[in-house]
Amino acid sequence: MRSIWIALRRASVDNHTIWKWSDGSPFVYENWQLFQPNDCCGDDVTCAKMNWLLLSGAWFDTSCLEKLGVVCKYDPSMRTVPITTTEANSVLRENPNPLDGESIKFTCDAVTQNLAVLR
């Protein structure tokens, strides 16, 4: 799989297009591919994916209907099961099952109780 969902969504605020993380965290880092986001190909281009194989993790806007894997992020301090690392601020897990962009948040919310901690 070359691309994965990154839980970034396009929104319209006061007639301006902005991008927001699905968990509400501040949007302080971006890695858009040159000429992206380009809003190409219709109104349903409201999700973002990361191409990690050929383009060094560059981001692209895309239709939320595309089926991709997803990377979920969560705060390890919110876990109910003790973790063994003290240095992590967030933990990532890739879900290898292709999902559409509308399923990202639901899927990530459902799996956060069973994630392995990366060191």
Task: Give me the secondary-structure topology.
Blueprint lengths: L2 E11 L2 E6 L25 E5 L6 E5 L5 E7 L16 E9 L4 H8 L8
Parallel strand pairs: 1-5
Antiparallel strand pairs: 1-2, 1-3, 3-4, 5-6
What report would you give on this structure?
By secondary structure, this protein is mainly beta. The protein has a single domain (3-23, 30-114), classed as Mannose-Binding Protein A, Chain A (Roll). Helices cover 7% and strands 36% of the residues. The protein has one helix and six strands; from the N terminus they run ββββββα. The protein has one helix spanning 104-111; strands spanning 3-13, 16-21, 47-51, 58-62, 68-74, 91-99. Strands 1, 2, 3, 4, 5 and 6 form a six-stranded mixed sheet that branches. It is globular, with a radius of gyration of 15 Å. The chain starts with a strand and ends in an 8-residue tail after the last helix. 17% of the residues are buried.
Number of DSSP E strands: 6
Total of domains:
1
Q: Tell me the helix content.
A: under 10%
Computed over alpha carbons, the radius of gyration is 15 Å
Beta-strand content = 35-45%
Q: Ends: how far apart?
A: 23 Å
CATH topology label: Mannose-Binding Protein A, Chain A
Q: Count of DSSP helices?
A: 1
Second CATH tier, the architecture: Roll
Q: pLDDT below 50 for ≥5 consecutive residues: which ranges?
A: 81-86, 112-119
Rounded mean pLDDT score: 70
Shape: globular
Secondary-structure-derived class: mainly beta
Largest sheet: 6 strands, mixed
CATH class: Alpha Beta
Q: What is the string of helix and strand elements?
A: EEEEEEH
